[in-house]
Specification:
alpha+beta; 2 domains; 23 strands; 29% strand
């Protein structure tokens, strides 16, 4: 992508109405646009980050036999009344509206009931189980107070997956597979070493659920972890969980954390209330076991922006950065333009995403924008480097650059001839 063609612009001004660091930086760098409190639009650069996160999650969900679909956002009242979750006293984040014929509908905040209702059309026998489906969808939640930038909003992108099983044992086995797949996701995002599977309150249906919590000073939760980091418990269930685990809570250290995933075992609670059954091997009707699994895609983006930033801007992990290379051309001589264009084309043809700064602006602005945008590698081409037949290479977190020849540059960027 040539920056001369990109409609967004960077800004030196910190948004006055945005207290959270992640949103400040993302707005300044041109990744998001604030529509209102808790609601953000994603620009081409922001969308690239979102899509890279989605790609990682999609690969890991497909690896455990998840099947991707997309459900409707409009939800009929009757679907959710079956389990009592249409009631605002039970679920207080519904956005509700009416169709022109006065039919009351809701805008989906989750999809457990909707999935079960749809899947009953396809699951009749034990031979149809287990199955697992997932989607990436914009969720709408009428939060009383939106805060923390894109880490908690009224509108956000989520990956939600639902697995259906014939037995508790099968559900438990798959649940453990998902935990491993989620851990692989967080490793690939670059936050695996500070993300923990934690015990959390399970709500009305299970004693405990599990959350994936990332250590983050801007997080809303408090996490208690032991010295070797093998146990992590959310503060809200600390006394009960440590008692059950036989752990002295005085041995645990508290840290601020942000939730980046949440998984539940609903068991047969949904299918019993909705009267959704399957026929077992003996020909008897049995309720279906259900578990659900969520990753907040845009929340992950916000947490990473909070954790991986410095006084110069964002510092994206390579796997989710909008581009791997920031190519800054300093000058516009015919030969320099030709050589810079050739490098841009070569990297692009090698599937290396490049932000090519071909703008007619000062070098200082290009360097500042490279840092603010957080691109992992910066390559500078100038009349000076052209004369020496070299390229100036610097990583985002390095304070020093180095002069390299073309082969050294391509090798450093992972381009193999």
């Amino acid at each position: 992508m040539r920056l001369s063609k990109l409609f967004t612009k960077t800004s030196k001004t910190v948004p006055a109405d945005e207290p959270s660091k992640n949103a400040q930086l993302l707005i300044q760098a041109g990744y998001i646009y604030k529509v209102m409190a808790g609601v953000y639009a994603y620009t081409p650069l922001g969308l690239r980050v979102v899509e890279n996160i989605k790609t990682i999650v999609r690969e890991e969900m497909n690896a455990i036999n998840g099947q991707e679909l997309i459900m409707s956002n409009l939800q009929p009242k009757s679907t959710w009344e079956k389990t009592g979750r249409w009631d605002d006293e039970v679920v207080d984040v519904w956005f509700k509206t009416k169709l022109k014929d006065d039919t009351e509908v809701g805008l989906a905040w989750s999809h457990e009931e909707a999935i079960m209702e749809m899947m009953q059309q396809f699951i009749h026998s034990y031979k149809d189980l287990p199955t697992s489906v997932y989607q990436f969808q914009t969720k709408l939640r009428n939060e009383l107070r939106a805060k923390s930038g894109i880490m908690r909003g009224r509108e956000f992108l989520m990956k939600d997956m639902y697995s259906l099983h014939a037995s508790q044992e099968d559900m438990d086995q798959y649940y453990d597979q998902v935990i491993k797949a989620y851990n692989r996701c967080y490793d690939r995002f670059g936050i695996g070493d500070t993300t923990f599977v934690t015990f959390a309150a399970g709500g009305a249906f299970t004693k405990y659920s599990h959350e994936f919590q990332t250590i983050c000073d801007a997080g809303e939760d408090v996490l208690y972890i032991n010295e070797d980091r093998s146990v992590a418990v959310n503060e809200e269930v600390l006394d009960d969980a440590t008692k059950e685990l036989g752990i002295d809570k005085a041995t645990l250290q508290s840290v601020k954390s942000a939730e980046v995933g949440n998984i539940f075992k609903f068991g047969t609670e949904k299918s019993e209330k909705m009267d959704i059954k399957f026929t077992d091997k003996e020909g008897k009707q049995q309720p279906i076991y259900l578990a659900s699994y969520g990753i907040g895609i845009t929340r992950v983006m916000g947490v990473i922006a909070e954790k991986f930033s410095d006084d110069r801007g964002l510092v994206w992990p390579e796997a989710i950065a909008p581009a791997k290379v920031y190519l800054a051309r300093l000058g516009d001589s015919e030969e320099l333009v030709k050589k810079a264009d050739e490098l841009y084309d070569r990297l692009q043809s090698a599937s290396i995403e490049v932000l090519y700064d071909d703008r007619d602006v000062r070098a200082g602005q290009k360097f500042a924008d490279a840092d603010l945008l957080g691109i992992p590698y910066r390559v500078v081409m100038s009349e000076k480097t052209l004369l020496a037949n070299k390229y100036e290479l610097k990583t985002r977190q390095s304070s020093d650059s180095q002069q390299v020849d073309l082969d050294e540059l391509l090798n450093a960027l992972g381009v193999h001839s």
